[in-house]
């Protein structure tokens, strides 16, 4: 038995991972660094969401920025309204600059922090339910869904950019103060905020991992393999696809909220196509079939990028693109797949060699 | 007695080319109805129409007195019609066990299935069916690694896991060895005790073994229907079909 | 928001024709690559960008006149496409999601390579003075260059149609798309057909690029602006040449009319919603080839 497939070993690996990320604030005293590491938690959440949707569900989503961005805007609006006063100063400064004389109705609900955060999470999720339902019921799938999600993202990008008086266009929204919850401000540079993000990452990862082990998770993988066959077993495939897509959207929405709490800023850049594609690249390189692999992929790639800095950005991206091509061509399961093969070789070392899936695929292609 | 499955005056054309031309069929409960006919006669298309994969141009299909014409694939499957495809369709990346678990579709609700982590009734049924199909030893291997015969049996087992009232088997013994064919025949006779079966098959030896009623399709219509003896004695059937077969 | 009087409606329709020709030109290479080879080529925008840069290179270093840059860009980008098909794409046929991702990798590599070579500052393509003038017919006002784009698009569509429906190569292409095995038994080499079609599609993107480099400035990122729109045209059209012509025309006109009533970006949003709803009713697009059977 390959250790890689051992459920206990998997949970142990996740446990170690959780322990390490939770312990970070004990060793990092530089608050700026801690804040930056917090944003890695956001990347981890996004990679998790992609792995769930694309890795397990086979739904390639090139528009995850939709949920991430919408939630980020919702959170930024909530934080912005916390600093406004209904009596003396009800209108955010950028709206005044855009000569709005009244707070747009769209913004009204964000006076309430609870309602604001709820909306930040519910609106993107609901959006995914509706868009997903439309697409999946019409049996738009595979590359076409990828294209449609991409197009939806760019449509949203343009509309947010265009609604300057309501969204501050390309400048985005910069809430002047950190999020205040129950009277206490959440310092984005403090360990509490880091732990909040980290806790959400851990909780959602555990939830996602359990989900993949449930009957639902199994069905979603069956749909990935052969959606049509699943229909003839009596399942409403579109419902499963919509559910996994919306769940992944929800996780991305949580990531969007965390992002704004950490950086106190949102702009259309969060809905940029290239960022959404980057998320797919994290999962692809790390290993889309492994939640943990995808998250580590995000950490490695974002870490490498910020380590090398802006001067070498083009060279880095060039290398990343080339490496991604190699992964797609030779390593469909990413770096996690490499580990799987390694552990597989270790465990079957003494037994007669069994045909590995990759060999089999090659043998079939040769037919 | 009214049949469990009643097909009335079914028509289907693709881009104006008629493929099914007024085909009618009545299948009685707890019998095996074999559908035979030359290549391109429209047998698979008929299966597609029954299971909702295609919508008929006209005509109706009733199942247990309910009109199921035009329902979605999953709705028809839920009413108790299970299907094995002509080209075996299993989930190659999943293990044999997982294939059977997927097929166990008592609970189909997506949200409820998020909280299902294997139930005892399912496990019992899975073991039982795996034993029936000689797959017990192979439960943990990836379905993509199975031999052709095993894959055929896995797909039949999946249909059984669905617990359907009617099983549609499209060429279940194509590509099997003599021994495997005999075993399949035994299995089908056993299933007849509790289920209704419609079997599309070219292998006349096999048909002779299992069929209660044989239906011959030709160019999308019903050419003849009767017991195997009547069919083999029928001149028109010999002309269009049996004459061209090696069996 | 204003109501539309007759003059501005006609103006919008003419402008729509111009938009349609641009989108169609961007989409045509994509259409044949998708329709024949079955590859969703995410690097298509970068092929367009490469077309613009090769025109720039040929013009500013070799002094090639603009009109000759267009066919030259075709050759250059077709050659690049050929190399990519042989080196990568051909190993990924039958894995549609993987080709999509791999071509996305290609697009990143091309974009960054061009950035490293040419820098991120904009380049400009010079055109004959006549092209940069404006044409005024009655109340309709259109730049001459946009008319050139329309003419080239018409030429490209006609040429592609001729190639696919009136030549031996076209017959082979259609044989391969309809039934690969049968075509092979007639001695048609599918691999070669795919290779040439991919190169042809890339070359057409090159043609588009040398024209778009004049409409806009030449930048490493310029391709991304076109690629989403091109994809919508292909998806709406269903992946056939005729489908793309209709889809390009329809979406271009609608964009122009919506834009006349609201504004450019909102029109784009509206158009997209319309496409989503349309696809809901006709997921196979306007003119889809027959679906494959199990
Ligand atoms: N989706 C489709 N589009 C166009 N033609 C189709 C389609 N499905 C089936 N046909 C045609 O309908 C006819 C009947 O096909 P069908 O598969 O039902 O035959 P069959 O009796 O199952 O044959 P076989 O014994 O070879 O399996 C064939 O001529 C086939 O080409
Ligand atoms: Mg058949």
Automatic annotation (TrEMBL), chain A:
Keywords: Cell membrane, Membrane, Transmembrane, Transmembrane helix. One of its GO terms (cellular component) is plasma membrane. One of its GO terms (molecular function) is branched-chain amino acid transmembrane transporter activity. It is found in: Cell membrane. It holds the Pfam family BPD_transp_2. The keyword Kinase does not apply. The chain crosses the membrane at residues 12-33, 45-73, 110-131, 143-161, 192-211, 243-267, 279-301, 313-331. It comes from the Bacteria. It is a multi-pass membrane protein. PANTHER family: HIGH-AFFINITY BRANCHED-CHAIN AMINO ACID TRANSPORT SYSTEM PERMEASE (PTHR30482), SLR1201 PROTEIN (PTHR30482:SF4). NCBIfam families: urea_trans_UrtC. This is Urea ABC transporter permease subunit UrtC.
TrEMBL record, chain B:
GO terms for cellular component: plasma membrane. Keywords: ATP-binding, Nucleotide-binding, Transport. Pfam families: ABC_tran. Residues 5-244 form the ABC transporter domain. PROSITE patterns: ABC_TRANSPORTER_2. SUPFAM superfamilies: P-loop containing nucleoside triphosphate hydrolases. GO terms for molecular function: ATP binding; ATP hydrolysis activity. Gene3D superfamilies: P-loop containing nucleotide triphosphate hydrolases. This is ABC transporter ATP-binding protein. It comes from Chelatococcus reniformis.
From TrEMBL, chain C:
It is found in: Cell membrane. CDD domains: TM_PBP1_LivH_like. The keyword Hydrolase does not apply. One of its GO terms (cellular component) is plasma membrane. The chain crosses the membrane at residues 12-40, 60-84, 96-118, 138-164, 193-219, 225-250, 257-281. It is a multi-pass membrane protein. The keyword rRNA processing does not apply. Coiled coil: none annotated. Belongs to the binding-protein-dependent transport system permease family. LivHM subfamily. This is Branched-chain amino acid ABC transporter permease. It comes from Chelatococcus reniformis. The lineage of its organism: Bacteria, Pseudomonadati, Pseudomonadota, Alphaproteobacteria, Hyphomicrobiales.
């Amino acid at each position: 038995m390959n250790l890689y497939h051992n459920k206990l070993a998997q949970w142990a690996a996740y446990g170690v991972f959780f322990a390490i990320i939770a312990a970070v604030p004990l060793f990092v005293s530089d608050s700026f660094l801690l804040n930056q590491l917090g944003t890695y938690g956001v990347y981890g959440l996004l990679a998790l969401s992609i792995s769930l949707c694309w890795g397990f569900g086979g739904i390639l989503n090139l528009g995850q920025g939709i949920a991430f961005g919408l939630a980020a805007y919702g959170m930024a609006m909530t934080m912005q309204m916390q600093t406004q006063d209904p009596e003396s100063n009800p209108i955010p400064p950028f709206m005044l600059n855009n000569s709005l004389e009244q707070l747009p109705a769209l913004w009204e609900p964000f006076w309430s922090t609870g309602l604001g955060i709820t909306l930040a999470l519910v609106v993107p999720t609901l959006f995914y339910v509706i868009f997903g339902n439309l697409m999946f019921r019409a049996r738009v799938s595979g590359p076409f869904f990828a294209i449609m999600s991409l197009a939806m993202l760019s449509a949203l990008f343009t509309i947010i950019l265009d609604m300057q008086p309501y969204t501050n266009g390309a400048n985005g929204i910069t809430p002047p103060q950190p999020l205040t919850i129950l009277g206490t401000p959440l310092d984005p540079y403090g360990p509490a905020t880091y732990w909040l993000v980290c806790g959400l990452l851990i909780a959602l990862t555990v939830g996602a991992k359990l989900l993949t082990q449930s009957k639902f998770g199994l069905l979603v993988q069956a749909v990935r393999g052969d959606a049509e066959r699943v229909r003839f077993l009596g399942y409403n495939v579109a419902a499963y696809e919509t559910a996994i897509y919306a769940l992944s959207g929800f996780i991305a929405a949580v990531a969007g909220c965390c992002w704004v709490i950490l950086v106190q800023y949102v702009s259309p850049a969060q809905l940029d196509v290239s960022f959404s594609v980057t998320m797919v690249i994290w999962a692809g390189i790390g290993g889309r079939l492994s939640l943990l692999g995808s998250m580590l992929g995000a950490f490695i790639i974002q870490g490498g990028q910020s380590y090398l800095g802006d001067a070498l950005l083009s060279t880095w991206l060039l290398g990343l693109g080339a490496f991604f091509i190699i992964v797609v061509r030779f390593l469909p399961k990413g770096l996690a797949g490499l580990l799987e093969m390694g552990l597989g070789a270790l465990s079957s070392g003494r037994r007669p060699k069994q045909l590995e899936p990759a060999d089999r695929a090659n043998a079939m292609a040769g037919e | 007695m009214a049949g469990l499955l009643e097909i009335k005056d079914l028509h289907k054309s693709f881009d104006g080319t008629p493929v099914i031309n007024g085909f009618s069929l009545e299948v009685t409960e707890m019998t095996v109805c074999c559908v035979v006919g030359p290549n391109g006669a429209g047998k698979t298309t008929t299966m597609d129409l029954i299971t909702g994969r295609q919508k008929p141009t006209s005509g109706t299909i009733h199942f247990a007195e309910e009109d199921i014409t035009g329902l979605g694939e999953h709705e028809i499957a839920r009413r108790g019609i299970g299907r094995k495809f002509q080209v075996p369709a299993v989930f190659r990346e999943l293990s044999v066990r997982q294939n059977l678990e997927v097929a166990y579709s008592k609970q189909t609700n997506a949200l409820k299935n998020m909280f299902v982590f294997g139930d005892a009734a399912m496990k019992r049924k899975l073991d039982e069916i795996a034993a029936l199909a000689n797959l017990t030893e192979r439960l943990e291997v990836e379905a993509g690694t199975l031999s052709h015969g095993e894959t055929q049996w896995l797909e039949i087992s999946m249909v059984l896991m669905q617990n359907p009232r009617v099983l549609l088997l499209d060429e279940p013994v194509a590509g099997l060895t003599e021994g495997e064919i005999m075993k399949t025949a035994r299995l089908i006779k056993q299933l007849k005790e509790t289920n209704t079966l419609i079997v599309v098959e070219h292998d006349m030896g096999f048909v002779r073994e299992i069929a209660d009623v044989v239906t011959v399709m030709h160019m999308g219509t019903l050419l003849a229907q009767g017991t195997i003896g009547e069919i083999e004695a029928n001149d028109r059937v010999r002309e269009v079909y049996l004459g061209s077969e090696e069996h | 928001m204003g109501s539309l009087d007759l003059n501005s409606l006609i103006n919008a329709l003419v402008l729509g024709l111009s938009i349609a020709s641009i989108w169609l030109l961007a989409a045509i290479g994509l259409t044949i690559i998708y329709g024949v080879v079955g590859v969703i080529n995410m690097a298509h925008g970068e092929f367009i960008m490469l077309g613009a840069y090769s025109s720039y290179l040929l013009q500013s270093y070799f002094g090639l006149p603009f009109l000759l840059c267009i066919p030259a860009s075709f050759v250059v980008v077709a050659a690049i496409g050929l190399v990519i098909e042989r080196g990568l794409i051909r190993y990924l046929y039958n894995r549609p999601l993987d080709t999509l991702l791999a071509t996305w990798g290609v697009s990143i590599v091309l974009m960054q390579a061009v950035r490293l070579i040419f820098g991120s500052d904009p380049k400009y393509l010079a055109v004959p003075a006549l092209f940069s003038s404006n044409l005024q017919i009655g109340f309709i006002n259109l730049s001459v260059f946009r008319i050139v784009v329309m003419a080239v698009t018409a030429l490209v569509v006609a040429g592609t149609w001729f190639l696919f429906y009136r030549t031996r190569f076209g017959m082979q292409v259609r044989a391969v798309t309809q039934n690969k095995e049968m075509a092979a038994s007639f001695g048609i080499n599918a691999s070669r057909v795919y290779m040439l079609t991919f190169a042809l599609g890339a070359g057409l993107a090159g043609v588009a690029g040398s024209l778009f480099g004049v409409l806009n400035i030449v930048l490493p990122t310029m391709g991304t602006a076109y690629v989403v729109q091109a994809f919508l045209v292909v998806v709406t059209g269903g992946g056939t040449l005729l489908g793309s012509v209709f889809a390009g025309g329809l979406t271009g006109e609608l964009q122009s009319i919506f834009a006349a009533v609201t504004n450019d970006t909102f029109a784009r949003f509206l158009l997209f919603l319309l496409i989503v709803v349309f696809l809901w009713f006709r997921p196979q697009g306007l003119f889809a080839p027959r679906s494959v059977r199990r």
